[in-house]
Amino acid sequence: MHVPYAHKTVKHSAKQFVDGMAHTNGIESVWAVLKRGFYCTYHSFSRKHTGKYVDEFVFRLNEGNCRIDTVDRLKSLVKGVQGQRLMYRTLIGKGERCSIIRY
After folding, report:
1. Looking at CB atoms within 10 Å, which of 29, 49, 66, 76 has the fewest?
2. For residues 26 and 70, what is the distance between their CA atoms, to the nearest angstrom?
3. What is the dihedral of CA 55, 56, 59, 60, to 10 degrees?
4. What is the DSSP letter of 46?
5. pTM over 0.90
């Protein structure tokens, strides 16, 4: 079933930053967390594993609310991986080309 989606835009070059519910604040927060991890934690990402890095930071954003108790965050992590199996072959991306992204 196709759900219609109203796509709205803002035009920063015209000094328009908000149009009702259309704004870029959310994605700018995502990019800020991802860039901080890239530059400060990992220093580079391999193209092969970029999706895994992004998944990690999505988890951090979704579960990173400081008002959430640490034990509850750990329970959420365990619940998310319970019953999941990560094979070493999948972890290392065996058979995929690896190139490093540096900025």
Report:
1. 66
2. 24
3. -140
4. E
5. no
Q: What is the largest CA-CA distance in the chain?
A: 50
Q: Are strands 45-46 and 100-101 parallel, antiparallel or unpaired?
A: antiparallel
Beta strands in the chain (DSSP E): 45-46, 100-101
Q: Which long-range contacts (CB under 8 A, 24 or more apart) does 91-96 make?
A: 93/48, 93/49, 96/48
What are the extents of the domains in the chain? 12-101
Report the alpha-carbon angle 56-24-43, nearest 5.
35
pLDDT in tens, the chain (103 residues): 666 777 888 888 998 888 888 888 777 877 888 888 888 878 887 888 888 888 888 877 776 666 777 788 788 888 888 888 878 887 777 755 555 555 4
